[in-house]
Design brief:
With about 210 residues, this protein is an alpha/beta fold. It has one domain: Rossmann fold, CATH 3.40.50. Helices cover about 25% and strands about 20% of the residues. A hairpin with a 4-residue loop joins β7 and β8.
Length: about 210
């Protein structure tokens, strides 16, 4: 979206739009539509939950992090138990500094939520350093760096890591059944009889 709020540009599936012309979401400093997306996500969690975990990719991962840091005055019940954030980046809008701080400083908040942060060494859209800085906002963060670019890794090692991470979060809750997670890269659907994951962002093209 350009400086004119009524002129839409690019793919409308984003969680917010860059106010600056010719800017991509990871480098924009003004997020247009973010509050509407946060409100919709919170409403979805309230009306269709409870959800055990949240999974987001790229812009969706950053929005997911913001949901965890500022769940609103009426958080989902029960609250989320974990987050999986793939290619998430530090938000650059100054209005969000009270939540995440500045890129070169410590975060003002550190949410006690187990999180898995996935980043690509050859990601040309989101620098791995930005993903690492975002992970500092979580007290119990696990980091996974792969050799690929701006994508959701699909190697056997990553699938095993994701399965183990989600399973451990289920086992950490008293009375929770052990989880066996099936992962499909067609939309990055994660399904299990005992664990529901709210997926942020549009359907991904595994090709």
């Amino acid at each position: 979206m350009s400086g004119d709020a009524g002129e839409v540009r690019g793919d409308p599936r984003g969680w917010w739009n860059a106010a600056e012309a010719a800017e991509r979401p990871a480098t924009s400093k003004t997020y247009v539509g973010l509050e509407d997306s946060l409100a919709l996500a919170r409403q979805t969690l309230q009306e269709h939950g409870p959800f055990d975990g949240l999974l987001g990719f790229s812009q969706g991962a950053t929005l997911g992090a913001l949901l965890c840091l500022a769940p609103s005055s009426l958080p989902p019940s029960p609250p989320l138990r974990f987050a999986v954030l793939v290619s998430g980046f530090m938000p650059r809008d100054p209005a969000l500094e009270p939540l995440v701080g500045m890129a070169d400083g410590p975060p003002p908040l550190c949410v006690p939520l187990p999180s898995l942060h996935v980043m690509g060494e050859n990601d040309q859209l989101v620098a791995a350093a930005s993903s690492r800085r975002l992970s500092n906002c979580f007290a119990d963060a696990t980091l996974h760096c792969h050799e690929g670019g701006h994508l959701v890794p699909y190697s056997a090692d990553f699938r095993a890591l994701l399965k183990d991470f989600v399973t451990r979060q289920g086992a950490a809750t008293p009375g929770a059944a052990a989880a066996t997670v099936a992962v499909s890269l067609a939309g990055l659907t994660v399904s299990d009889a005992t664990l529901n994951i709210a997926t942020t962002g549009p359907v991904l093209d595994p090709s």
